[in-house]
Amino acid sequence: MTEHLLTRGELEVMAVVWNNPPVTVNDISESIDRELGYTSVLSTVQILEEKAFVRRVGKRGRALLYEPAVSREDVRQSMAGDLTERLFEGSARSLVLSLLDTGSLTREDLDAVRKTIRAMEKRSENNP
Predict the structure, then answer these.
(1) Which of 39, 82, 117, 126 is the most exposed, having the fewest neighbouring CB atoms within 10 Å of its CB?
(2) Cβ(16)–Cβ(32) under 8 Å?
(3) Average model confidence (pLDDT) for the chain?
(4) In this model, does residue 2 exceed pLDDT 70?
């Protein structure tokens, strides 16, 4: 799997790009919850373009339009794998147990976890 690792600021920008494509730098700047200057957002978008996370897809007036070049799920998978390797010494079990132990999961979250586990168990029974 290709490594798709992003900084916190890059993730903020990508969230806007994933949610509202295509977007301009101004669209992104206006959508981020904290005060960021236009040039800071522009620099981040340029870095994301260099890293092949976004691509130009045209113009709106004089402003360039950007869309995601990498899916949110690919980034999630890559970053979760990186976190598992670096913080939990490669143990997905330790990662999952740590998340469960935080106490921040709702009943709906736990139901979704159970459902996913059941589906994974069925798949493994069918593919021993």
Answers:
(1) 126
(2) yes
(3) 92
(4) no
Question: Which tokens is 72 given?
Answer: 């949110």
C-beta separation of 14 from 48 below 8 A: yes
Spatial distance between the Cα atoms of 61 and 14, rounded to a whole number of angstroms: 22
Tokens of 2: 């290709």
d(C-alpha 98, C-alpha 19), whole Å? 29
CATH code that applies to domain 8-68 = 1.10.10.10
Could you give the dihedral angle defined by the CA atoms of residues 102, 99, 85 and 8, in that order, rounded to the nearest 10 degrees? Answer: -80
**pLDDT over 90 at 6, yes or no:** yes
- DSSP, res 2: -
Task: Please state the pTM of the whole predicted model.
Answer: 0.81
